[in-house]
Amino acid sequence: MLGPAIHTRSRGPISRLSAVGCFAGELSSLATSGPQDTGGAGHDEQVGVCRDCGHLAVTLCRAMNIPARYYNGYLGDIGVPPVDAPMDFSAWFEVYLEGGWYTFDARHNAPRIGRVVITRGRDAVDVAMTNSIGASVLRDFAVICEEAQNVSAMTAGELIAAE
Prior knowledge:
Strand 1, helix 3 and strand 2 form a beta-alpha-beta unit. It is built from 5 helices and 6 strands. Helices cover 31% and strands 23% of the residues. It has helices at 2-9, 13-27, 39-45, 50-63, 156-162; strands at 29-30, 47-48, 68-78, 89-97, 100-104, 113-121. It is globular.
């Protein structure tokens, strides 16, 4: 059972959140899941992707009366060992503690650099990556995220003008 495991292993909200992240991340081995799958299904079947880990973690936080919201966007490969695969869309969550929102990632369960937020909401229903009417085909898609070297502080307008 989850409840006793989280409460006996952890004291205080931060350690409980870490336990939630570990629990959600351990249950979900990376396997394909469909858009109709839920965090509960990921828990029951012990499979899923970052979306399923995030849903499960948000659900568990809310069950402990910790406000949580779901995010998706890009998670760069900055500061982690290189992987031989293209960067992909990612999902994570935030919780509200002591007057501020804090980022947690049940899939990776480690601090990461370079999150690019695309959307946030209560869950994936609020933050659909795309909406379409009728058939659509994604022909090509690539995202590259690299750490900037020796960059001075510039506004977005200055960066665009510099290109």
